[in-house]
Amino acid sequence: MIHYSQYDKDPGIYPTSSFIASLLGANKILIAGHSDPDGDALGSATALALALRDRGKEVKVGHIGRITPNLFFLMDPKELFFELPYNGSYLGEIDLLVFVDCHGPERVWQDLGHQEFLALPPFLVIDHHQYDGKIDGPIDIFHDPIASSTGELICRLLKAGDFTFTAPIVRALLTAIVSDTNFFTQTNATASALKEAGDLVALGGNLEDINVRLNYSWSIGRMRLLSQSLNSLELYCNGQLATMLLTAEMLRAADATLEDADGFVDYPRGIEGVLLAVFFKEVGRGKVKVSMRSRHPVSAREIAQAFGGGGHVMASAYTELTPFAQEAKERFLNGICRFFEVAK
Fold first, then answer.
1. Is the omega angle on the peptide bond into residue 11 within 30 degrees of 0, that is, cis?
2. Which fold has domain 220-339?
3. What is the CATH code of the structural domain delimited by 17-214?
4. Any idea what DSSP says for residue 250?
5. Cα 163 from chain centroid?
6. Phi, psi dihedrals of residue 292, rounded to the nearest 5°
7. Cα–Cα distance between 282 and 121 in angstroms, integer?
8. 224 Cβ contact partners less than 8 Å away, ≥ 6 residues apart
9. β-strand partners of 127
């Protein structure tokens, strides 16, 4: 059964008492975000894990895929984290799974089979993405699609459960919120998001420190890679659509890693008149990750869903089953201008 609750005097959605009871009733807990976790997923998981450890729980944060180097500062203490196998085989003696910043196990283990799914222990979901109603299993969900970030929801949960906000928890939650609001520059930087961030700053959170860690700690390889990727930039649909590529050859030439390309999709979005920026990144194993950033009235989520993906209205992604970024781009361009108000 899925439970929602809302306090009469507060427009925000809060976890039910049964949700908190399920969380505190378990002893051995595994927390996991979506594959290739971003600042919101990793920050939310870290904050919740630290808060539960303070209550005497045995907690681990499992991650799968790539973590960008500018987020490594969140992974302290290091023994709290471990890399999950791709097939979802590791569960140990876990009492409870908690999925954060995603709607369930299929966003963590993308090749999870039906029998493996049925063998999962009870799980909870904490998420702010649009809910599609397709979750089955032993689940209780704390979900608010209006929230700026999962970090904002974790703030509400910790307040409702009377948890202590230690310095590492405050830092992780601020990282989560600023990551999904792009430092409060997007429309999801709501009054609620700003209130939670303000409370965290009042508790000692340092926005300047987080900004330096997230945005000013990159390698020289990233700069070389950015130069090459920008050379691939092209405009379509009367200048409303901008595309960029990242190929394996670019990575080798720049002596860089895939993690160094984090955030590249934001550069073409900065061009005047661009409503949708699309970044095609060869990630290996015969796949290309397609990341999108949009501006009103174009919905990145609507376009991503048309290609089997999802995400936010302004930031979404999907995976194309081809090893070549150029091929993924050509498939994308086939008919894409129908999503724009101005035709070719």
1. no
2. Diaminopimelate Epimerase; Chain A, domain 1 (3.10.310)
3. 3.90.1640.10
4. H
5. 24
6. -135, 145
7. 34
8. 253, 254, 255, 256
9. 143
- Beta carbons within 8 Å of 172's beta carbon, 6+ residues apart: 43, 44, 46, 47, 50, 74, 151
Residue 193 has pLDDT above 80, yes or no: yes
Query: What pLDDT shows up at residue 7?
Result: 33
Q: Is 308 left (phi over 0), alpha (psi -120 to 50) or beta?
A: left
For the sheet with 310-311, list strands across it. Answer: 234-236, 241-246, 276-284, 287-294, 315-320, 310-311
Distance CA 28, CA 122 (A): 12
Give the tens place of pLDDT for each residue, 287-314.
999 999 998 889 998 999 889 888 888 8
Task: List, in sequence order, the alpha helices (H) in the chain.
Answer: 17-25, 39-54, 114-118, 150-160, 167-181, 191-202, 207-215, 220-230, 248-254, 266-269, 300-306, 325-333
Torsion 189-190-192-198 (CA) sign? positive
DSSP class of 321 = S
- Residues composing the chain: 344
Over range 263-272, report the average pLDDT.
92
> Is a pLDDT exceeding 90 seen at residue 113?
no
Residue type, 84: L
Give span(s): CATH 3.90.1640.10, the chain: 17-214
d(CA 60, CA 125): 16
Tokens representing 333 are: 């361009």
Q: Which of 40, 39, 38, 37 is nearest to 62 (CA)?
A: 37
Q: Which residues contact 318 (CB under 8 A, 6 or more apart)?
A: 290, 304, 307, 308, 309, 310
